Every structure is written in structure tokens, then in C-alpha cells.
Amino acid sequence: MYGAYASTGYGSAGANYGYYHGGPMTASMPSRPPMRMLPGMDPATGVVWPGGKRPPGPMVKAGNLARDITIPALKQALSKWGVDGIKEVLLADSRFGQVALFLFKEAEQAQLMMMAQGVEVEGRPLMLEFLPAVAAKPEKKAREVSRSTDLIKVSGLPKKMDKNELVTHLRSHGVLGISQVALQPEHVAIIRFNEEKDVPKAISKAHNTVFKEKKLTLEPLMSHWDALFPNDADERGGTFQDGSWWEGYDPWQPSSARGFGSYGPRRSGPY
């Protein structure tokens, strides 16, 4: 690919590749021009990206360009040295003056262009730098995007039940860490856990289980206990403990028929 190097006075292809790795080279490379600070400059590469955004994919940055160099002149000069696979060439400003950005589809093609380190274009030896493609950020799964919670909403509850029965059912399926339980209208219960890590465990163990001939649906509830029950002091404290529930209590009965201002009793006490 680069066997013609010997006729240029730059030595063999191996010599030029050796320069890229810090080895000797027959032609001396020019010193860098003074560094400049430019608005919109990428601090990592020193380039002011055309359009304000770094192009995707691997590329090679070429510096020490001749004044008023054109893209066709660059392409023509490099094609003589077997450089191919160039997708696009852009001229951009940088901290060391004008540079050319050679965009490639494949990183291997961009790395092969580094063999042309020091090739003269319009009397100026190119100073090349390989810029790998920026790794794309992995997409987060929906569960990872969701913020954590210590609440679970249980839907599909039977009409006749009490809190103790629900807790016993959940515990029989290995659900641990229950802190508080609040029965709600529409055959729903809100369960609070001691730790957020208990929520996914509970869902994996008890979702779609059958409780009194009803299939339960468990899902995380993105809220806070105090926000759901701001005036219900008794719903906010204590760890769930086995205890008696009011016999004959029907949580789905309208609150006005029970003398409560809202669904559910005003006290749930230590369970």
C-alpha cells in the first residue's frame, strides 16, 4: 500500500510507521504552532467541530496544512498513497490552526491512514492523529430508568379480607420486609417496605399469585407514604406485626357507612 515511500525521501513504509510509534524517521517533523484557545473548542481534541457537534465514527485529524488547502487536493494527494475508505473530509479550526478531519466507516481504515504520517501535501508534511469513535452510552432498561421506591401497589384484592390475611399470603410466598399496609378503594392495597431493595424481590415472588381465588397484581408505586397519607398519623409508623383485625370490617364499604372521613380506618395501630 505504501511501498512508494522510498522514492519520496521519507524512507520505507516501515520507517514512517515507526515514526508513528515514536521511532526514527528520515524526515524531521515540524514543530507545532502556538496553542490557541477558541470558543466552542472541544478540550479533549482541541478541535472546533463543524456544526458544533463531533461527527460520529472514527477519524484522523491532519494538521500542519498548507495555507488555502482544499479538500480535493487532500483527497487526491492521499489517494496516491493508497489511503482509501474515506467517508468524508471536513476542514475545521483548532487550537493549533486549521486541521482536516478524515471520517471513516471502519476504525481499521482510519488506523491504516496513520501509515501516511509525514506525507507531503503541497510542500507541508502532514501531522496525523487518530481519533477513535466515541463509545455510545448504553441504553438503560426501563427498570433502571425508573427511580427507586419503597412502595408497592397490590391490585385485584378480594372484597372480603383483612390486612393480616394479605400479609400472611405474601409471607407464604417469601415476601419479607413489610412495614405498613393501607387498604384503598377499588380493591387495592398500598404496601410499604423497610427497604427499597425489598420491592423488586416482593414483586418477583408474589406477582400473579392467587389470594382467595383472586389473582394479585403487584407493581412498584412511584410515590411516598407521607404524600399518600399526609393527615393519617397512624398510617405512618410502626413495623407490621401479627395482630387481630376488626372482625366484620369490610374495607370496600363506603367510609360514610363506617363513620370514617376516608376509606380505611383512622387508626391502623401496630399491626
From TrEMBL:
<feature type="domain" description="RRM">
    <location>
        <begin position="151"/>
        <end position="219"/>
    </location>
</feature>
<dbReference type="InterPro" id="IPR035979">
    <property type="entry name" value="RBD_domain_sf"/>
</dbReference>
<protein>
    <recommendedName>
        <fullName>RRM domain-containing protein</fullName>
    </recommendedName>
</protein>
<dbReference type="Pfam" id="PF23085">
    <property type="entry name" value="RRM_PARP14_3"/>
</dbReference>
<dbReference type="InterPro" id="IPR012677">
    <property type="entry name" value="Nucleotide-bd_a/b_plait_sf"/>
</dbReference>
<feature type="domain" description="RRM">
    <location>
        <begin position="59"/>
        <end position="129"/>
    </location>
</feature>
<dbReference type="InterPro" id="IPR000504">
    <property type="entry name" value="RRM_dom"/>
</dbReference>
